[in-house]
Automatic annotation (TrEMBL):
Lineage, broadest ranks: Bacteria, Pseudomonadati, Pseudomonadota, Alphaproteobacteria, Rhodospirillales
Tree of life domain: Bacteria
Limits of the Response regulatory domain: 6-133
Organism, as annotated: Azospirillum doebereinerae
Keywords per UniProt: Phosphoprotein
The name this protein goes by in its record: Response regulator
One Pfam family here: Response_reg
Length: 154
């Protein structure tokens, strides 16, 4: 069986990070979760050598990206991902507390695959993350040539 691709989670809020990781665990996703706590850390993972991914790079099945991040915000991270030939086909989901229409419009203009406003309630947040992980890591079919495999633990 092909090696599962990781999920790149870019989140700076410790409580949201903890809840997201718990929801992924409950969904029994077999994918590794790579955590970046700011935009610069996410870009360093994706493009560690000034824009080009190394040959041993573990391409994520999906990037779950917050907008409001330290160092480099999520909109700029998205712009760089989608403007780079090595990363542009990786699905990106904005998972954010922002309800600003400008953030929504800019995200879709830059090529985001989905824009999800973080639910306020604990159970709603948990259910949303559970669904996102299952869809993007298991159900979504990647473009030809990306060789992304998802999966769940048996």
């Amino acid at each position: 069986m092909a090696e599962l691709k990781p999920i790149l989670l870019v989140e700076d809020n410790p409580k949201d990070l903890e809840l997201t990781l718990e929801a992924f665990e409950e969904a029994q996703l077999a994918n590794d979760i790579v955590v970046a706590r700011d935009g610069a850390e996410a870009l360093a993972y994706l493009m560690p050598e000034g824009g080009e991914s190394p040959t041993d790079f573990k391409r994520p099945a999906v990037i779950i990206l917050d907008i409001k991040l330290p160092k480099i915000d999520g909109i700029e991270v998205l712009r760089r991902i989608k403007s780079n030939d090595a990363t542009r086909q990786i699905p990106v989901v904005m998972l954010t507390s922002s309800k600003e229409e400008e953030d929504l419009v800019r995200s879709y203009h830059l090529g985001v695959n989905a824009f999800v406003v973080k639910p306020v309630g604990f159970r709603d947040f948990f259910d949303a993350i559970h669904g996102l992980g299952s869809f993007w890591a298991i159900l979504n079919e990647p473009p030809p040539g990306s060789h992304r495999r998802g999966g769940s633990k048996a």
